[in-house]
Amino acid sequence: MTRVRKHSLLIILTLCLVILAGCGGASSMLPASTPVPTQSGPASKEQPVPVVSGSQISGSDIPDTQAFVTSTSSTGHYQLEVPEGWAQTSNGANVSFTSNLNALQVTLTNATSQPSASTVRNDQVPTLQQTGRAIRDVKVRDVQLPNGPATLITYTSNSDPNSVTNKQVRLENNRYLFYHNGKLATLTLSAPVGADNVDQWARIARSFKWV
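Predicted structure:
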């Protein structure tokens, strides 16, 4: 009888160990209904530079009294309002306007369909992270503007090194994607982190339209 009891006890202990092992394995797995976090693409090796408040950088804010003029691209068939007096550089349908560390850039590329927040996260964002300067804090959402829908990417990045001092500043960026008849216009607005340009940036983005 003693041998039988010992044998039964060993069987019970073995079963308990098997059950406990099974429970441990299950706890390390995500439930089927739990969403898996989106994996970002490999970022560039450049590290973010320290943030200097935009209020400490001369000319980082676009003045509330800033005058705007309409810029039209006959090649790209689009127009938008831009701050008057900013330095302009054009290359075909692509154009940029700069003032101190503030920048406004429009580039035109071919596209097959209207982008959405979902497609942008899978396509443009990984490319941006790989090719940009220490891209961080990326957020994507669809927006409705007066002249049609757009997708907005917000992120922070390093500026290009100063040609004289080689110094960089940390920038905040709003990038709008506009689609029309096989063309994708990318409007990027950049300024030092902390600059007070919310209203002016909104005005520029809301003014963009195809012509």
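Summary: The radius of gyration is 27 Å.
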